[in-house]
Amino acid sequence: MLSARAWLGRVLLLPRAGAGLAASRRGSSSRDKDRSATVSSSSVPMPAGGKGSRPSSTPQRVPNRLIHEKSPYLLQHAYNPVDWYPWGQEAFDKARKENKPIFLSVGYSTCHWCHMMEEESFQNEEIGRLLSEDFVSVKVDREERPDVDKVYMTFVQATSSGGGWPMNVWLTPNLQPFVGGTYFPPEDGLTRVGFRTVLLRIREQWKQNKNALLENSQRVTTALLARSEISVGDRQLPPSAATMNSRCFQQLDEGYDEEYGGFAEAPKFPTPVILSFLFSYWLSHRLTQDGSRAQQMALHTLKMMANGGIRDHVGQGFHRYSTDRQWHVPHFEKMLYDQAQLAVAYSQAFQISGDEFYSDVAKDILQYVTRSLSHRSGGFYSAEDADSPPERGMRPKEGAYYVWTVKEVQQLLPEPVLGATEPLTSGQLFMKHYGLTEAGNISPSQDPKGELQGQNVLTVRYSLELTAARFGLDVEAVRTLLNTGLEKLFQARKHRPKPHLDSKMLAAWNGLMVSGYAVTGAVLGQDRLINYATNGAKFLKRHMFDVASGRLMRTCYTGSGGTVEHSNPPCWGFLEDYAFVVRGLLDLYEASQESAWLEWALRLQDTQDRLFWDSQGGGYFCSEAELGAGLPLRLKDDQDGAEPSANSVSAHNLLRLHGFTGHKDWMDKCICLLTAFSERMRRVPVALPEMVRALSAQQQTLKQIVICGDRQAKDTKALVQCVHSVYIPNKVLILADGDPSSFLSRQLPFLSTLRRLEDQATAYVCENQACSMPITDPCELRKLLHP
């Protein structure tokens, strides 16, 4: 079979590429897969999918039909001289009627290389004419339509040496792909084929060799169908959790960076699913050397990340990834899903270690989200861009909003520091601690365009104790001076042009953020944070849930005056929307003990089962059958990456729901799902750490921790807070208020047999349908939960 990659290489008469060009520092992120992806199907290396923003609308031009869309990404292309169509039947009908190939371009609004290609190629009049006359050009926001993105990314990754965004794929009128790639420069270079050349050659081949193209496309699609199948098959049960745990840990251990933490050289991603696995592994192996090692790996990684430049020390929150192994120079975009998952990871690190360093980082993350990514009605925005103009009217540059020169810091912090062993200003102390230098602390190799010369990324170089000792100062005095300096830089930064905000709101990421606030608020005992989680859940129910059908909507948008708008027709939810929202609601119930959230979670799980469950092969499809009609593949996501796989999260949800209700059907579904993914887990368990964690939970015994008491009573709250202070991933926390007609009492009849001891709030720890002796003392409960 002639692959698409080989075919395009032949068409373009290009030699096979070897190592090829390195991707730009900012452009090698595949957010789904957490790996660099740089090569197009033509075998010519292409930088891929970093993020940024360029002014893309030219008001004097006539807008195209994308002007009627809600997606910020599509609107960024609304003034291109291209006859763009959104994904839909109108475009498909035109392609079939006119017998033209479809050019599909997929990206997202804060994608740097998407904007580069928009600026270089899609604003080009000649290229626009080629796209409009010889192709049916379709633009897709991958965050609106993850199903379209996953299907064609599967093709691009299978027929080239990588994937990323922008993703550009050519399809037959029947939506079958025949060639694809990532970023193309507009014109040919020494080692790279230009986009205009690609269009001309594909146009020629479509006219002369269309039948061969169609046959090859069908063969590739058939091969991908077989390759992507995930099914129970002849297996009766999932694999051994002990074996999968051990193999996953060993694979992580082999790739661990001893000095800086993390699990790769560069680029280096946070990957919270790996940290979550390591914490769970530690808990079940804490008396072993491997268990201690797992804990050390996770805690050290979190500490190095928090001290590095990947963390925004001035404005809080975390950037997307580090371009080096030291966590020093980041790719500067900020994603909601990273903040959500990292808040949970740092909260768990605090539970395990007791070190307030980690709880402070978790609170900082949520402070950033509250300030910068929150809609006034309770929802959460998607992202902030990497690029912004250094000054108003200037061309955007990556990191301009976040980096500093020595001169700027000296001017902002000129005050002398009293009591130091040498003449010292606040600025000099600040620059020493955060590693600023006159020449800038960014290596030229990380700044190929020279945009960051003389600039510095703040990164903690010394502990407070070392900085204090260096200048003969008290540690608390240094802490105060540094915090004052950060606040002054924060106020000064407000006057810079801000990065673009993607104000689109996604149900899935909002679900993750509900978990972030709920878990952190519960662990730290902060009702204020739990209230933010509650407001987020209310937003989801009010604005992203259709009561009549019981379905979630995928997206909503910020309208004029801060209103909430929807596309028409609405974009319905995908599997990840249901899975992440259900997780968020279960976390919110355990944090607030408000059973209404648990009831809604059960209803959403029923809807998820109805829309996505594969009754023949087991597991969940990523999209509804009807919504994905016409796509050549219906996939089940099989990788935990920047976000966990929705199937991995669903496995956990099913276990927890079984614990809350006793409904056997959900346990059966969980076992069936894990069995369907057996082969994937056996082959590369490190690709599914969250699912391996679910496998372990299913094969261990889930704890039902029941607190009998009044929700608002102090003694009840003391027992609840005791439970939240201990790291117990494989448990459900249930409040039994003594009302036999309550939702949980109807689900779990055994609750009626549990009594308060001497009219005090009383805890029971139940496993395998047997409960402990009643406990009223939080200290005794803690001993039982964490022997």
From TrEMBL:
This is Spermatogenesis-associated protein 20. May play a role in fertility regulation. InterPro entries: 6-hairpin_glycosidase_sf, 6hp_glycosidase-like_sf, Ssp411, Ssp411-like_TRX, Thioredoxin-like_sf. Residues 23-63 are annotated as: Disordered. It is found in: Secreted. Residues 1-22 form the signal peptide. CDD domains: SSP411. Residues 63-224 form the Spermatogenesis-associated protein 20-like TRX domain. Keywords: Developmental protein, Differentiation, Secreted, Signal, Spermatogenesis. The keyword Transferase does not apply. Its main location: secreted.
